[in-house]
Structure formats: C-alpha cells, structure tokens
Specification:
The structure holds three protein chains of three kinds. By secondary structure, chain A is α/β, with parallel strands linked by helices. Chain A has 15 helices and ten strands. In chain B, the strands form two sheets. Chain B has a two-stranded antiparallel sheet with strand order 1-2. In chain B, α5 packs across α14 and α7 packs across α10. Classes of the chains: A alpha/beta, B mainly alpha, C alpha+beta. Chain C: Pfam families: ABC_tran, TOBE_2.
C-alpha cells in the first residue's frame, strides 16, 4: 500500500502542477495548507463541524497567551465531521476535535479516537455535564436546548395560550400547528424525539408520537425548511407564507431573531415552550496521534476558559458550560431559562438509536 | 500516441476516484480481514431498500423524459432562432445549475407550494408530491439539454434538412430523419447526464419531496455520514454502481450506432429570425416555459433578497457588506465570491485538461474495448455520492506527498471529478465530427500532430470547449456536497456561506442568504456571458 | 525525385497496392490513371506518409521516407474535396503551410498575394472559404498546396468536381503553370482526358498494380491490354487468332500490322479504323445508335455476328438509325493487345 501511494504520488505530480499553476491566485489558500504538519509546530489544528465559529480577537488572544496559532478545519455537519475523525483514527487531520454531542458521544468513545486529558479549569464546569469525568477523554464545552418555538403573534391573534409542555402538543387546540424535522436526517428532529423518550419512557414515547401524528404534526427533512419555510414566526417563514406557528428549533432561536434583525425589535417575535426541551452538550477532545499534543492541550484549556466561553454564545448560539462565564444580555432578555430539559444517557442513545429511528419512521412517516 | 494522451486522465481517475471509492467500499465489506459478502444479501433483502431503489430509478427516468420533452424545443429555439436577448437568456437558464438546492427548494416552493402561483390560480399544491421533484429536476437540468444539444444543433448544416424537404419530406419528417439522427449522440449524452444527476439527486428530493421520498443517494449519505454503517453504505454504493453502469452501457450502445462524421458549419449562419406562425408560436411557448419554470423561481429569490422589513431596498446587501468584523462566521461577500471563483477556476482548468485529453484520446477511431471502457469510466463520478468519494479521500490520500486531506486543492479536485464528464460528453461528439482529412491536410502542409490539433481541431471545437468550460465552471461554482465534506481551511465559497446563513434563525440571516444567492446567480450569469463573448469576438479571427 | 520500390498496402485480405514500382523525375508531371478502387488514392497517401506501408520503400530525393512523419516530408497535396479549413479565410488557408514553416508575416502576405494572382483570384484573401464557388475553392486549394514550394506536388482528382469547360480551361492553365514553375507533379485521376492533357507520363493502374506506363501518346496509341483499351474508352475489342498479317475474328478478317504476335490474341479496332463502305462491300451491319459529337458522329453498329462496333463518320452523309451499312477495317486503326 505504501509503495503504491508513493508511485501514484509521483505520477500525479504533473496533474497537480497544472492545477497549482491554474490556481496561483489562491495565495492565502497555500498559506493555510502546508504549515500545519511537522512536530513542534506553532500551529494547532482544530477540526470541527460547519457550525463551529469563534471571533478573531478571541483566537488572537489564544495566540498571544500560548504562542500557538489556531487553524480551523470544518467538514460537514456534526455527524459527518465525527465520522471522518473515526475513519482517520490514528492519523488525524488535526490535533483537537470539537463538536461531539451527547447523541454521538458513545460512538466517539467506543472508537477510541481521543487521548485522555484533564483540561485546566474543569472545576468551573458543573459536574452533571462532565459525562466522562473518570477518564477525561472528552471535555464539555457548551450546551444547548432543542425546544418547540412558537409564533407569538399567532397565539396573540388567536387569543390562545401557547403550549408549554410535551403533553400540551397533543391537545386538540394545537391541532395542525407543529412542524418538526425528520429524525433520520436532522439533529433537532432527533433531539425532540429523544426528549419524548426521556419524558415518556421506552414504551410510552411511541404512543405519544401516535397522538402527535393524529394531531397533525408535519414532518420535513431539515431544520432549514421547517424553520425558514413552514414556521410562521420566522423571517423566512413569513415571506414563504409559512402556516405552522410551532416548530422544533433551539432555545436560542428567539434571541437570534432579535440579534439578527434590523431594526431590532423590543421583544422577540417567537417564544420557547420550556417544557419541551432536550439538552444537547457538545464536547471536545484531544485526537489520538495528534502532531501537536502540547498545543492541543493548550487549546482544550482555552475552550473552557472564560474568554472563549463568553465569546461562544453569540458565535454559535449555545450556552457556556463554565459557571463564571457571563451570558450576553440578549440571551437572558429574549431567551428562556430552561431548567427542566430532558436528556438521555449517551450509551443508551448509542444502543437504541437505530431502532428508535426505524420505529419512529414507520410510526410517523408511513 | 493515444496511450500517451490517456495517461494523465487515467492516473487522475485512478488516484482521485477509483482508489478512494474502492478503499471505502473495501473497508465496508471487509471485517477482521475477511470479506463479508453476506451483508450484500442482507441489505438487498431489506424491503425498505428495495423501495428506495425503485423510487430512485423511476423518478430519474421520469425526470429525464420530462426534461427532454420540455427542453428539446428550447434547444431548437436557442440554436436556430435569432431573437433579442438570446445570449443573456442562455446564460440565465444555466443559473439554476449553480444554485444550492436549499435555496432552490425555497424558491420552488413559491411556485408550487402554499400560496404559490399554482395555488393562487387554481388552488393546486404540488409540494411534497412527486411532481415537485420532477419539475425541480427539469428546472435544474434544462440547461444541460439546451446547451449540449443546442450547441451541436446550431452547427448542423441546415441544408441537409432542406435537401430532405426537397425530396418530399414534411418539416417534421425531415427533422426526424435528418436532424434527429445527427443530434442523436448529443441527445443521448444530455439524457445520460440528466439521468445521472437525477438518479443521484439529494437536496431536491429532501426539500421538495419531504421525508417520505428517499433516493439511494440520501440513503448512502445517511449510512455513511450519519450512522457510519460502512457495510450498508458499501452495498448501496455498489448497487448504485451497477445501476449507473447499466445505464452507461445502454448509452454507449445507442451512441456508437449513431456516430458519424458531421459537416459542421458556423453557428452564426444557421440562426435566423423566426418565420411563420409556427416558429413564432414555438418561440413564444419556449419563452413562456423559461419564464415560468426558471425566471419565476429565480425572481422569487431576488424579490426576497430585496424585501426588507422597511420595504424593498438593499438592506441585506448592505448588511453583507458590513459583515466580517464579527468573527469568521460571515465573510465579506467579496471574499466568498473570490474564493468561489478561485476554486471554480482551478476546477475548470483541471476538468478541461483531464477531460480534453481524454476526449482527444477517445476521438481516435478504431478504439478498442479498453478505450470504450474508459469512456464509460469517466462518467462514473456523476453516479457516485459525494460522501463516498469524500470519505474515500480521507482514508487514501493520507500520506505525504499525497496527504491532501487538509489541502485546499482537494476541493477543486473533487469538483473537477464532476466537471470532467461534462467536458468529455460535450467535446466528444464535436471532436468526432471533425473530418479527419482536415488534420491530414494540415499535416501535409507541415503541421505536427499537436500543431494540427491546435490549428484544425481546436478552432472547430472552440465553441464546444467553451460550452464545456461553462458547465464545468458552473458545476464547480455551485458545488456544495463535496465542498462541505472536504475539510478545508475556512475559506467558504458562496454556496457554503449561503448554507451557513440559512442554518441560523433571524431575519438578517435569511435576507442575507437570499442576497448571497442572488450574488451567486449574478456571478454565474456574468461568467457564462463572458464565455459567450469570447466566442463571438474570436470567431472571426482568421 | 520520387521512387516507389515494391510498395504494398493491404486492407485486410485485399491489396490496395501490390508491389508497385514507380519513379517520378524532377520537373516531370506524372498522372496515375485508373478506375475507382484501383489504388491510386492510396498511392498518394503512401507518398504523403498518411498511409503506412506493409512492405516496400518510398524514396524522396533518394532518401528513404520510412519513419519520416507526414509533416516533415515537405510535400504538397491537394485533396479531392479540397479540405479547406472552414474557420479560416482564403489567405489563412493559403498561408497555412508557410506559417508551419515559420515564415514571417511579411513573407506570408507577399507569397499569398503572389499565389492568389497565380491561380487567378487576386485580392480574394479576405473572403470566407464557405462563400467560394467550387472552381474558386479548387484554386485556393491549389494555391495552398503550392505556397510552401513543395518539392513534389500531389493532386488527388484535381479537377474532379468541376464543370467541363472550366475543367478544360484549368487543365491548360495548370499544365503551363507547372511548366513555368518547374514543379514536380504526381496527380491521380479517373478521367483519361484530364490525364492526357496534364501529364508528361501516364501510369494506368488496375487493382493495385500498374497496368501500363508511357507518354500519353504511347498509351493512347498502343494500349497494353484489353483493360487499358476499354478503360480508355475503346469498345471495339474482340478475341482473334492472328496468322501472318491477318486476324481472324467474329467480324471476319481484320488486317493487323506487320510483326504482330501470332496465335490467339485480342484485337482492338479504333473507331477511326472502322470505315463505312457500300452496303454490299464489307461486313454488313445495321446502325443501332447515332451520337453527335461536335466534329463527327459516333455510330453504334450491329454486325451479323460478334459484339457491337463503334465507328466514326463525318457530319455529312452519316447514316440514320436502322440504315444498313458495310464496314471495312483499316490496318492503321488496329492494335493487337497483349495478354492480360
């Protein structure tokens, strides 16, 4: 295999030569490609999913603090990004991976892609999100809640109280109002189903979905479509004449509706049904075979530092895990405080996920 | 000589396609060092998979037939009739090709969905029906037919048809007996491409079909990217291979029977102003179809990009302009455009070099079985899921000097895999139609084979080359699947930036996504118009 | 200049050229004449290097050309259907060979002007080739082939598609042009009139072999075989037994020149050697066809036995169809043909 690779490499040199010439304009692309390799490098590479984001000043602060420059590689959504790490286990593309959530955690741990490291500052993180606190293979970085959002205007116009719990959603007054996502293809869709499992147990959740279906739940494939097209409360949904005032989305969606509006409204147009939430926690870990382990450890420390944790909410619309991190005022003012979100243990999810998805599909889609 | 031409494309495909795909399929089917063929029967025996396979196939066939039916008159009108704004319109119909499916889905729902045109006029809603999928496939692939078939059509000598008319053939009979056979290879090529695109359709099926419709491609994506069930994904990939291979075989047979040297003429001489009620009617109906099926959804996007809370205005565009200082989430649109253009340009050059060489090698007559096999092989990337190739890259190109996993070049390479089949398909019929004796005439006059190719073939196929380049460019510009999978330093392209914006709540995000989509369309249309210009300016060079 | 030495080309089982030997001297114009399928076009392609040999050698100026690619042979070839480059104008076509040889723009322009004058198309340089008439295309093709001053100019059916008057005029022009330029020419044609008018020497081919070589006069006067005779348009060929100076044929006794080969042969009687005599004096025939040929009338006669006879007679007194005539043979019009 090795010699084949060498041979092939030589043979395609010509092909690459051509393309490099063609793309000689891509100067900043070159800068980022070559230098990450090599030990003792001053670059530390963070591999993540497409939603990862950090502001430049914060990343610069890390460099000032530690001397390491962060290079970020994004590849696909959370599931795809993790699976790519599993495939390249032992010869990873970077040093730290960020973005395993509790629905995927078991897969990451079972495949052994992380080197244990106890990040500095974990004492500021509540124990209940430290799922792997014995081995420290992963470090919790953020949490988020998947909840039903409602269109305030719709319910005000109809003089109807918006639903607040899972139980409310199957009531006749909310018939034909909810749109959710396909559990098989969408992360919030999966979260909402897991929430129902947590709430009604291994047997009861199926009955719940039968009732939901009878109550006219609409299922679409992705969050983008549900939120931007079918949900009547979002900016996109209004333009698309969306007719569903309830949507499965995030607890952070209402603040986003305010922050990303111009002019800013005094009140969020949407609200959160606080009794319908499922808690997602995202973790990061040091990749096995990382070229720059020291840099990777420094980066993990930094991910739970106050500076990064306070930058995170407005970059990724998630909640910090560090207790000392202040949440931006928009979050507290326009968002909802979720105290009772449901959750399911990662290993239980890992064990039952396929079966649950199959059952859900045959219950709801057929 | 032929082998020499073939070497580079062959190596390219071996390294960047065959090897990665074989590696990922092999990994799936092999457990503990032994092949697990039992999985094949297990997966194929699953009735759900059978259902998916059936739906995938029939919707692809139906989409292809519908596209041909709707687009062939368009190909004629664009090839043979002269009307104002033709160049612009030809560029515009290609625009859907570059649009991310998420955006198209949104726009298309405005036509077929709740409150859409059909709903308002007749109370008909086609969203979440298979009609929405089929019509969206026509929307995407209209340009494939118009450009590949129309490109050749405009160069066919109209006197051939006139000769048949004089011999007593009706207008339609003349078309059927003279023009259609000459167009045969181009129509077959276009049909093949449309079929492959629709067979592997992903976003359209998801958004417009809803969760009840699922294609093989969606299933492979789920099994690979979400569930990491490589054995199932491997079996499905092989099923897709077999299906695509069968279609390629059928295509090869129909085309080979028909291939003849055609007498090509300057397209400028074949187009004329419409004459008679029939031609005016045809022109009008084609324009109506274009307006309804393409301009309307595109118009909806533009309208939404301008529809700010303060009324119509450029607010979202200004917001884009201001972006960039708050983190790496948003990049200034100029930067995203620049990234997109660079990637697309690199991919186009790769596709032209690889595809051009392959087409030149395949042109030489008397090609053996090996060569024909290669011809088919070149089409396979269109029939293989981006996720399969992307994951294959991960486990093969992981060692220096081929450790390209984190290199920017992987993006244009993956895009070129999709662009190359276009180049080959478009170039081949035209190259084969070039009279070999022209090359001989050049050789006798002292031109070396390479020089003869440059002096004789190139000027004759320049138009086809530009059409091919346009497609490769458009495909690369709009490519999202592979681009989003391949880990890359954060230089988002326009489609990636659009997807990020759509992935967030908030009016500004949605509006900016629409604005960026509009910019993407404009960039594409401008690039295609520039290509058309090059052709016009240079055709009179000698 | 050109020497072919046992050149053989096979297409599958069939030999398109079968051990052909041929020489063309400097400044000579040689015309290869033969029906379609006789291998004459293949001959040109072999010389040009467009067709690989199965055996034999092609020498140009004494040098073996095996391994010399087409573009390095320095030849001119005018294709049967011209093969003008459609995307170039007239000047672009004529200048092509010069460009390939790296001539400067100035040289190209002056040479193009010179050649267009030469072929009678002065000032046509900017015209599109698609807009030219057949004759004009022909001239452009000729100018293109001549422009680089090739050491050997080859013409494939040079006047094939032109109308008769144009063809006759062009033949004369070409002949004087080649004489003036001192060009060495190898042409192929199926038209004997064209060949005889153009060539210093004629080579008749049949089924990939050379059937006869000679000056136009020699070939015309003494066709070597029945094939050549018939190909030249002679119909009056009949099996005969020669003894002394008389041949015994189905038409009766025919006088043959002294020293003719004896025994069973074939005899050709030119139409001019068929004299009309009184109805009772010679071989009795009936006139079955009568064609006006401008300077004379061609008659087809049916004798009592043997094949039809062709005869010529003056415009005046030509018998009508159905008239009985008598025929006598003049020894000057009789040729004893060699064995096939």
């Amino acid at each position: 295999m090795r010699s084949t690779k060498r041979l092939a490499a030589g043979a395609i040199a010509a092909a690459l030569g051509i393309t490099t010439l063609a793309a000689c304009g891509g100067s900043d692309g070159k800068k980022t490609s070559g230098e990450a390799s090599g030990s003792g490098s001053k670059t530390v590479t963070l591999v993540s999913h497409d939603s990862f984001n950090a502001s430049d000043p914060v990343l610069k602060a890390f460099t000032a603090q530690t001397g390491y420059t962060v290079k970020v590689l994004k590849s696909g959504d959370a599931g795809a990004a993790l699976n790519q790490e599993i495939l390249t286990k032992g010869s990873p593309r970077g040093d730290v991976f960020f973005g395993v959530d509790n629905t995927l955690l078991s897969r990451a741990l079972d495949n052994g892609i992380f080197t244990p490291y106890e990040a500095k500052g974990l004492d500021r993180v509540p124990a209940d999100v430290q799922v792997d606190k014995d081995k420290h293979r992963v470090t919790p970085v953020d949490t988020g809640d998947i909840c039903v959002n409602y269109d305030k205007k719709y319910f005000a116009d109809k003089k109807l109280a918006p639903p607040q719990s899972f139980d409310d959603l199957v009531k006749p007054e909310y018939k034909d109002l909810l749109v959710t996502e396909n559990v098989a293809t969408s992360s919030p869709g999966l979260g909402f189903m897991l929430g129902s499992v947590a709430k009604y147990g291994d047997e009861g959740w199926q009955d719940y979905w039968k009732k939901l279906k009878a109550n006219g739940v609409k299922v679409v494939d992705g969050w983008e479509q549900a939120y931007n097209t079918d949900f009547s409360g979002s900016a996109g949904g209004k333009k698309a004449k969306g007719d569903r005032p309830l949507v499965v989305s995030y607890a952070s969606s209402p603040p986003a509706e305010v922050i990303y509006a111009d002019p800013k409204p005094t009140e969020a147009p949407t609200g959160v049904a606080t009794g319908t939430c499922f808690r997602q926690t995202e973790f990061a870990g040091l990749l096995k075979g990382a070229r720059n382990e020291a840099g990777g450890k420094a980066l993990l420390d930094f991910l739970i530092s106050k500076k990064f944790q306070e930058d995170m909410p407005l970059q990724m619309f998630v909640d910090p895990v560090a207790k000392d991190a202040a949440v931006p005022p928009e979050f507290t003012k326009f968002g909802a405080k979720i105290t009772n979100s449901a959750t399911v243990a990662p290993d239980k999810i890992a064990k039952n996920r396929d079966q649950w998805v199959k059952t859900w599909s045959s219950l709801v889609l057929k | 000589m032929r082998l020499g031409l073939m070497a580079l494309p062959a190596v390219f495909f071996a390294v960047f396609f065959a090897w990665p795909v074989a590696a990922i399929v092999g990994r799936g089917l092999k457990a503990d060092g032994a092949w697990q063929f039992g999985r094949i029967g297990e997966v194929l025996g699953d009735p759900d998979i059978g259902h998916v396979l059936w739906f995938t196939t029939w919707q692809a066939l139906a989409s292809t037939a519908l596209t041909l039916l709707i687009a062939l008159p368009g190909a004629y009108v664009f090839a043979r009739l002269e009307f104002p704004g033709k160049q612009l319109l030809r560029a515009v119909v290609t625009v859907p090709f570059v649009l991310p499916t998420v955006v198209v889905g949104t726009a298309f729902l405005a036509l077929l969905g709740r409150g859409g045109l059909l709903d308002q006029l007749w109370g008909v809603r086609l969203d979440t029906t298979v009609w929405a999928i089929l019509l969206a496939h026509v929307f995407f692939n209209y340009a494939v037919v118009v450009r590949t078939v129309g490109g050749l059509w405009s160069q066919l000598d109209p006197r051939q048809e006139e000769a048949a008319r004089v011999l007593g053939a009706s207008r339609f009979a003349a078309w059927r007996t003279v023009t259609l056979p000459a167009l045969g290879p181009a129509v077959a090529a276009a049909a093949l491409m449309v079929f492959l695109f629709t067979f592997t359709s992903f976003g359209v099926v998801q958004i417009l079909g809803g969760p009840t419709f699922s294609t093989l491609e969606v299933e492979i994506y789920r099994q690979t990217a979400e569930l990491l069930d490589l054995p199932t994904a491997a079996v499905l990939t092989m099923v897709q291979f077999v299906a695509v291979g069968a279609i390629l075989a059928v295509h090869a047979r129909t085309v080979r029977r028909r291939e003849t040297a055609l007498k090509l003429v300057d397209p400028a001489q074949t187009a004329r102003r419409p004459r008679g009620a029939g031609q005016w009617m045809l022109l009008a109906s084609v324009l109506a179809v274009v307006a309804l099926l393409i301009l309307l959804p595109v118009g909806v996007l533009i309208e939404r990009s301008l529809d700010t809370p303060d009324g119509y205005g450029l607010g979202y565009y200004r917001a884009l302009q201001a972006a960039g200082d708050n983190g790496s989430f948003l990049v200034p649109p100029i930067e995203a455009i620049w990234n997109s253009l660079q990637y697309a340009l690199a991919a186009t050059v790769i596709a032209l070099v690889i595809g051009g060489l392959a087409a030149a090698a395949l042109t030489r007559r008397g090609s053996g079985r090996l060569i024909r096999g290669f011809d088919a092989l070149l089409m396979l990337p269109l029939g293989v899921s981006a996720v399969t190739v992307g994951f294959g890259f991960l486990i093969t190109l992981d060692e220096p000097p081929l450790d390209l996993r984190t290199s920017w070049i992987l993006v244009p390479l993956a895009q070129a895999l999709v662009g190359t089949p276009f180049v080959v398909r478009i170039m081949l019929p035209v190259l084969r139609a070039v009279d070999g004796r022209l090359r001989e005439a050049a050789a006798v006059l002292g031109a070396s084979p390479l020089r003869a190719w440059r002096e004789v073939d190139l000027p004759l196929v320049r138009r086809a080359l530009l059409v091919a380049a346009g497609f490769a460019f458009a495909v690369s510009l709009g490519e999202f699947g592979a681009t989003v999978f391949i880990a890359r330093p954060d230089r988002p392209t326009l489609p990636v930036a659009v997807a990020r914006l759509l992935g967030r709540a908030g009016d500004l995000n949605y509006g900016q996504a629409m604005a960026l989509s509009t910019i993407l369309m404009v960039v594409c249309a401008v690039a295609l118009l520039v290509l058309e210009r090059i052709r016009t300016d240079r055709s009179g060079e000698f | 200049m050109l020497k072919l030495d046992g050149v053989t080309v096979r297409f599958g089982q069939r030999a398109a050229l079968d051990a052909v030997d041929l020489e063309v001297a400097d400044h000579e114009t040689v015309c290869v004449l033969g029906p379609s399928g006789s291998g004459k076009s293949t001959l040109l392609r072999v010389v040009a290097g467009l067709q690989p040999l199965d055996s034999g050698r092609v020498l140009l100026g004494g040098a073996d050309q095996s391994g010399v690619p087409v573009h390095k042979r320095g030849l001119g070839l005018m294709f049967q259907d011209h093969q003008l480059f459609p995307q170039r104008d007239v000047a672009g076509n004529v200048a092509f060979g010069l460009r390939m040889r790296g001539a400067s723009r100035g040289e190209q322009a002056s040479r193009v002007g010179e050649l267009l004058d030469l072929v009678g198309l002065p000032g046509a340089g900017r015209r599109a080739v698609a807009a030219l008439s057949g004759g004009e295309q022909q001239r452009v093709a000729l100018a293109r082939a001549l422009a680089p001053s090739p050491r050997l100019l080859m013409l494939d059916e040079p006047l094939g598609q032109l109308d008769r008057t144009l063809r006759e005029r062009l033949v004369v022009e070409l002949r004087s042009l080649f004489g003036r330029l001192g060009t060495t020419v190898l042409a192929v044609t199926h038209d004997q009139g064209e060949a005889f008018a153009l060539a210093d020497r004629v080579v008749v081919m049949r089924d990939g072999r050379i059937a006869q070589t000679g000056t136009p006069l020699e070939v015309w006067q003494h066709p070597a075989s029945e094939f050549v005779a018939r190909f030249l348009g002679f119909e009056n060929v009949v099996p005969a037994t020669v003894s002394g100076e008389v041949a015994d044929t189905a038409w009766g006794k025919v006088p043959v020149p002294a020293g003719s080969p004896q025994g069973p042969v074939r005899v050709l009687v030119r139409p001019a050697g068929v004299r009309l005599v009184g109805e009772r004096e010679g071989l009795p025939c009936e006139v079955v066809g009568r064609t006006f040929r401008g300077s004379h009338v061609a008659l087809r006669l049916r004798p009592g036995g043997g094949p039809l006879l062709e005869a010529e007679c003056g415009l005046e007194g030509a018998p009508g169809v159905g008239a009985p005539v008598g025929v006598a043979f003049g020894v000057g019009g009789v040729v004893v043909l060699g064995e096939e």
